[in-house]
Inverse folding.
């Protein structure tokens, strides 16, 4: 890879496939460069980790309940003894609704994607087909250089 990269091929491949699986050097630094390229191209980026996502489909596109840690405090009455359920709006759908008018779309950059199951990765690969403004970048593992391929190809290789 060249020392200075424009990221045009990366953005072109992302727009073509909708979801990319990336392999990044373990020392880091490349993710930020490519995120800056995406923002300069007109995309809004949202970084998140795959750890603790739970049901990926509901977390990204549906209203879901969360139960924060009770920290020793328990509710009394008809509610569950482990605490109240708070309902959170869907992350991706909410971000898509609030995009700036001149934005090309939303890019979800998900780190630690190696912990996701095959079905979850397939769901993420097909998610941009539901809304073309949504793009997915999933970090699949480490490599010596920053490389990428369509996310469905990384599922087939695993």
């Amino acid at each position: 890879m060249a020392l200075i990269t424009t990221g045009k091929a990366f953005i072109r491949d992302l727009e073509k496939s909708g979801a990319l699986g990336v392999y990044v050097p373990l020392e880091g630094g490349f993710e930020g460069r490519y995120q800056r390229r995406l923002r300069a191209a007109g995309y809004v980026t949202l970084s998140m980790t795959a750890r603790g996502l739970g049901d990926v489909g509901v977390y990204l596109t549906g209203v879901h309940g969360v139960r924060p840690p009770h920290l020793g405090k328990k509710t009394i009455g008809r509610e569950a003894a482990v605490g109240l359920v708070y309902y959170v709006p869907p992350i991706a759908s909410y971000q898509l609704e609030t995009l700036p008018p001149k934005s090309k779309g939303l890019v979800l950059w998900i780190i630690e994607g190696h912990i996701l199951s095959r079905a979850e990765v397939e769901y993420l690969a097909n998610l941009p087909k539901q809304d073309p403004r949504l793009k997915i970048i999933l970090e699949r593992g480490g490599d010596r250089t920053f490389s990428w391929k369509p996310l469905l190809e990384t599922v087939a290789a695993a």
Summary: The longest helix spans residues 118-130. Helices lie at 8-17, 30-40, 56-61, 91-97, 118-130, 151-157. The first strand starts at residue 19 and ends at 24.
